[in-house]
Specification:
A hairpin with a 2-residue loop joins strand 3 and strand 4. The two termini are 14 Å apart. The chain has a seven-stranded mixed β-sheet with strand order 3-4-2-5-1-6-7, sandwiched between helices. 46% of the residues lie in helices and 15% in strands. The protein has one domain: 3-Layer(aba) Sandwich (Rossmann fold), CATH 3.40.50.300. Helix 1 crosses helix 12 and helix 3 runs parallel beside helix 5. It has 256 residues and is of the alpha/beta class. The protein is built from twelve helices and seven strands.
C-alpha cells in the first residue's frame, strides 16, 4: 500500500487551511482510510479543532534523525484523535524553532518527506499537512514532500495573490528541485453568492485558474464554530452545505 501525502498550503492566512485540513482528514477516515494529520503550523490549531491540545511533537519530527530509537520516540507523539482511523501528530509554537534549526543545518528540500516516510510502514493511506502561511523553509519542504497540493483561497478581493505565490513556489520546486507532486486544485472558501464581492472574486478565480479551480466551500457559521467545540463539520452537522462540500472534496481526493 502506498501512503499519499496531501499538503494544504497558501502563503496568505485566514483562508481556511486548517478547516480544510481537518475536514479532509476526517472525511478520508470516514471513508475507511487510515489518516495521519500533521500540524506544521506553529499555532497548533489542528489539535484544537479536534478537541486536543497543541504539543511540540512536530519540533522533534523536523529536527530528529531516522534511527530506530528516534523513530520509536517520534511514534510516541502520535495521538489518537478520538475518531476511528484518524490520528494526529501535534505541533505548537516550538515549530517556529524547528524552522530555524532546519535552515541553520541547511537540511535538504527532501528533509520532511524523509522524516515522515517512517510512518509509511504504519498502514497509513494518507498523511495530511496543515501548514502555516509564512514561507521560510517548512512550507517549501512540506510541498516538496507531497503528492498532491490543495490551495484554499477566500473568495474576497486580493485573495488570488496568495494563490499565485503558492503556485509560483510549486513551479520553482518542479523546475529546479525535481518535485514530482501535483496541484490537486485551488479551493475557493467562504463563498457567499449573495455578496457581490464573493461572486466577483469567483469569476476572477475562474478566469485566472480555470481547470485548476475546485468547487467552492460556502461560508458557514457552523464551520467557524467547529474549532471552539473541538468537533469537525461532519460531527457538527453532516447534512449541512459545508459538510457535503467537504465530503465531495474527499471523494475527489480518493480518485487520485
Amino acid at each position: 500500500m502506498t501512503t499519499k501525502i496531501i499538503c494544504i498550503v497558501n502563503q496568505k492566512g485566514g483562508v481556511g487551511k486548517t478547516s480544510t485540513a481537518v475536514s479532509l482528514a476526517h472525511g478520508l477516515s470516514q471513508q475507511k482510510r487510515r489518516v495521519l494529520l500533521i500540524d506544521l503550523d506553529p499555532q497548533g490549531q489542528s489539535a484544537t479543532a479536534l478537541g486536543r491540545n497543541p504539543e511540540p511533537g512536530v519540533f522533534y519530527l523536523l529536527t530528529m534523525g531516522t534511527t530506530q530509537q528516534e523513530t520509536t520516540f517520534l511514534n510516541s507523539w502520535v495521538r489518537l484523535s478520538g475518531r476511528e482511523g484518524l490520528y494526529l501528530f501535534p505541533g505548537d509554537q516550538q515549530t517556529m524553532a524547528a524552522q530555524t534549526v532546519l535552515n541553520a543545518q541547511d537540511k535538504p528540500i527532501s528533509a520532511i518527506r524523509s522524516s515522515v516516510s517512517r510512518f509509511f510502514k504504519e498502514g497509513l493511506h494518507y498523511i495530511v499537512f496543515d501548514t502555516a502561511p509564512s514561507v521560510g523553509g517548512i512550507q517549501e519542504r512540506a510541498v516538496w514532500a507531497s503528492d498532491l497540493v490543495i490551495v484554499p483561497t477566500a473568495t474576497e478581493f486580493l485573495s488570488a495573490d496568495g494563490v499565485s505565490k503558492a503556485l509560483h513556489m510549486m513551479s520553482i520546486l518542479q523546475e529546479k528541485k525535481n518535485w514530482r507532486g501535483n496541484l490537486l486544485g485551488v479551493l475557493p472558501t467562504f463563498y457567499d453568492e449573495q455578496t457581490r464581492e464573493s461572486k466577483a472574486t469567483m469569476e476572477s478565480l475562474q478566469e485566472r485558474f480555470q481547470t485548476s479551480l475546485l468547487p467552492p466551500i460556502h461560508r458557514s457559521t457552523l464551520l467557524r464554530e467547529c474549532a471552539s467545540q473541538g468537533q469537525t463539520i461532519f460531527e457538527m452537522d453532516p447534512l449541512c452545505h459545508a459538510a457535503k462540500e467537504y465530503m465531495a472534496l474527499t471523494r475527489l481526493v480518493l480518485k487520485y
